[in-house]
Specification:
The chain is mainly β. It has 4 domains: about 5-100, no CATH class; about 110-210; about 215-235 and about 300-365, Phage tail proteins - horseshoe like beta roll fold; about 245-295. The chain is about 15% helix and about 40% strand. The strands form 4 sheets. Strands 1, 2, 3, 4, 5, 6, 7, 13, 14, 15, 19, 20, 21 and 22 form a 14-stranded mixed sheet that branches. Strands 9-12-11 form a 3-stranded mixed sheet, with no helix packed on it. Helix 2 packs antiparallel against helix 3. The chain is globular and about 75 Å long.
């Protein structure tokens, strides 16, 4: 396992030498958002002519908002992170870098900024949400070297629109996030992958109503007790559990449309509500309430951390959105005495890179079924 960290210009995609000898690196990737990268770059002593030039090159290669870090593992691209901030540690003589995956840039671009039409109302759609988001992102793709060729928007289905102007103060990131969240025939997934090798790389937008594949077994716990590839893990059963859901629709006061769903499987009555402000049909609202009730009545969200050399699907072969499996044999873990064979969709994962030796620690965050419900 060998890592390389390359700097590239955000706007042009050109590589910026030299290679960066980062330490204490942690990187993560996330579906429908952005993961982060942190690391340290120790500056070379003593201060002499050669090292002055090298430090100037390091400072240029890590300049915030202008540079991107490409992470390569054994030559395979892991992803691209836009440097958003850095801090110089005087005592350690090291630069501490923080970077976000490229979709973070969308939140630094206001919609409708281009003069002379920056105050004119602009409308995208009606079209499928992926097409609307695609057309909006196409307006800034050249600014971030974004390859959009892998996206094929659906040519039919439920449609939506977006209209706005600069005075609304909304960023493109806000708009894409809003378009991606709705459920059913609306909404979509997105991420930006890094592809290529050597000195030629592409920042490729991946966007569709649902993205991801099946990567098979990723975690297993077997007899005797404690053996397997799970370094750490937990099951979170949080306060969202409820057995009564009210769906609040359009209107105010006694004229507000409502729906409800409840379960008598356990007591006492615990209530929660969801807001669907554009809906007027009580039957639709009750269906939405029932869907949310199914998610929160017994909500349980697992997380796991694994050693990279013991994951069946190796780093570089999976991405946010993929589905993996967790296997626990019967009589191995007291929480699941009869065992477990569960499919989990990977929403994000983070990687802690050791400064010496192999075997990164990979921590998976799986789909929270109620997290994006609207």
């Amino acid at each position: 396992m060998a890592y390389a960290y390359l700097a590239a210009d955000m706007a042009t995609g050109e590589l910026v030498p030299p290679e960066l000898p980062l330490t204490s690196v942690r990187w993560s990737r996330q579906l429908n958002g952005w993961g982060q990268l942190t690391g340290r770059l120790h500056l070379p002593p003593p201060v002499n002519a050669d090292n002055r030039r090298l430090v100037e090159a390091y400072r240029d290669a890590t300049d915030r908002k202008r540079r991107v870090i490409y992470v390569l593992r054994d030559g395979t691209p892991m992803g691209a992170w836009w440097i958003t901030s850095r801090r110089y540690d005087l005592a350690a003589q090291a630069i501490e870098i923080r970077a976000d995956e490229l979709p973070a840039y969308w939140s630094w671009r206001l919609f409708g900024w281009t003069a002379p039409s920056h105050l004119v109302l602009r409308r995208f759609g009606p079209a499928p949400p992926v097409q609307v988001a695609y057309d909006i992102l196409a307006s800034i793709a050249p600014s971030m070297g974004l390859d959009m060729s892998a996206v094929t928007p659906p040519d039919s289905g439920t449609t939506t629109s977006y209209e706005g102007r600069l005075a609304d103060g909304k960023t493109i990131g806000d708009i894409v996030a809003d378009l991606s969240k709705p459920e059913g025939d609306l909404g979509f997934d997105y991420r930006v992958d890094l592809q290529g090798s050597g000195t030629s790389f592409q920042r490729r937008l991946i966007m569709a109503p649902r993205i991801g594949g099946d990567i098979g077994l990723i975690a297993k716990l077997t007899r005797p007790h404690g053996l397997g590839n799970i370094v750490a893990g937990e099951v979170i059963e949080d306060e969202r559990r409820a057995n009564y859901v009210a769906a609040l629709g359009q209107g105010d006061g006694e004229s507000r449309a409502t729906g409800e769903a409840f379960s008598n499987d356990w007591e006492p009555r615990v209530s929660t509500s969801i807001s669907v402000t554009d809906e007027t049909d009580p039957a639709v609202l009750s269906a939405r309430a029932a869907a949310y009730l199914r998610l929160v009545e017994h909500i349980s969200v697992p997380t796991i951390s694994l050693r990279s050399d013991q994951i069946d699907a190796q780093l570089g072969t999976f991405a946010p959105g993929d589905v993996g499996r967790i296997s626990i044999e019967p009589d191995t873990d007291p929480w699941w005495p009869d065992g477990l064979w569960a499919e989990q969709r990977i929403i994000s994962f983070s990687v802690q890179v050791p400064d010496e030796g192999d075997n990164e620690t990979v921590s998976f965050q799986f789909d929270d079924p109620a997290g994006g419900f609207t």
